[in-house]
C-alpha cells in the first residue's frame, strides 16, 4: 500500500494470495460470529443475507479490498488500507485503527506516541484506547483502536457491524461491557449491484 492518497495503489496477482489467505482464515470466525450476532438481534439468518459462503467471501473481498479514489480521481484507497494500514491525506493521518500496525511502526521508530484521550472500561485485553501520535511526520489528533485483539477479531467485528449497521453505531458487548463500533460507507463509487465499499470502521472512544 502507498500511504499518501492521490497515488494509485497497485494490486498484483502475487499480492492477492495473502489477501485471499486472510479472508479464508477469518471466514470461520465471521460465520460463527454472524450466527451469534443475528441470534442476539433477532434479525434474519446468515443464509438470508448471502445465498452461499462463496458469495459471502466475494462480497468481503470487494467491500474491503476493492480500490476507490479518496483524492484527485486516483485509485488510491481501500477500506482495508484505510483502517488497518493508515493513510496520509491533507497533511494528516487518516484512518489507522489497528494496534499491531501501531506497534510495528513505533518499534521501527516511524511512529511517535504522545498520549491517549480515552481508556475503555475493560481491565484486561481487548481494550479500547483513543490515541494521539505522529506517523512519519504527520499528526493523528484523535484515533481509536481495539488494543490486544487479533487482526481476525478486528476484521470480523468491523465486517459484521458494516454489513448489519452500515454508516451507523453498532452496539455490542465485550466482556460484559458496551462496545460501540462506528462504520462509514464510501458514497462516491460502488461495486456489484450498487453496493458500497467500506469507508471506515473503528471503536467509538468517548
UniProtKB/TrEMBL annotation:
PROSITE patterns: ENDOU. It comes from the Eukaryota. It is found in: Secreted. Residues 1-206 form the EndoU domain. GO terms for cellular component: extracellular region. Pfam families: XendoU (PF09412). Its EC number is 4.6.1.-. One of its GO terms (molecular function) is hydrolase activity. It catalyses: ribonucleotidyl-uridine-RNA = a 5'-end dephospho-uridine-RNA + a 3'-end 2',3'-cyclophospho-ribonucleotide-RNA. Its main location: secreted. InterPro entries: ENDOU, EndoU-like, EndoU_C. It is an enzyme of class 4 (lyase). Keywords: Endonuclease, Hydrolase, Lyase, Manganese, Metal-binding, Nuclease, RNA-binding, Secreted, Signal. Its cofactor is Mn(2+). Belongs to the ENDOU family. Monomer. This is Uridylate-specific endoribonuclease. It comes from Xiphophorus couchianus.
